[in-house]
Design a protein that fits this description.
Oligomer: single chain
Helix content: over 70%
Structural class: mainly alpha
Low-confidence stretches: none
Radius of gyration: 16 Å
Largest sheet: none
Order of helices and strands: HHHHHH
Distance between the termini: 45 Å
Number of strands: 0
Length: about 120
């Protein structure tokens, strides 16, 4: 059942993004920024945590999960380090994902053949 819950949660998040792309004039970059911001806001309001508990990686892997991780990391760093945690917590919590995106993006670029249109 866990796989089903993950699939449903991730699918709903992705479907919302696709509807925004298809039905509005919002650019994909703004939709990504919106999802990260909503992840932070919904975590702050206590709404995203139950979604993560239900959908597990279906809620943490999409871009809204990045906002969730930023918020949780910042709160943890503030508790441990005080004021300086505001600046270090989010980056520390998400550094593994950021590093992976850079490495895998570079590896993908080695096999891609870009062309100008």
């Amino acid at each position: 059942m866990t796989y089903l819950f993950v699939f449903i949660t991730g699918g709903i998040i992705c479907a919302i993004g696709q509807v925004l792309i298809d039905k509005t004039k919002i650019t994909p970059a703004r939709i990504l920024s919106l999802f990260v911001t909503l992840g932070v806001i919904l975590t702050f309001l206590g709404i995203y945590e139950p979604i993560v508990n239900f959908g597990k990686s279906g809620a943490t892997v999409p871009i809204s999960g990045f906002g969730y991780s930023l918020f949780k990391g910042t709160v943890k760093a503030i508790e441990e380090k005080g004021f300086i945690g505001i600046f270090t917590g989010g980056i520390t919590a998400t550094s593994g994902g950021i590093a992976a995106a850079i490495v895998f993006g570079f590896l993908a670029s080695l096999f891609a053949k870009p062309s100008l249109k």
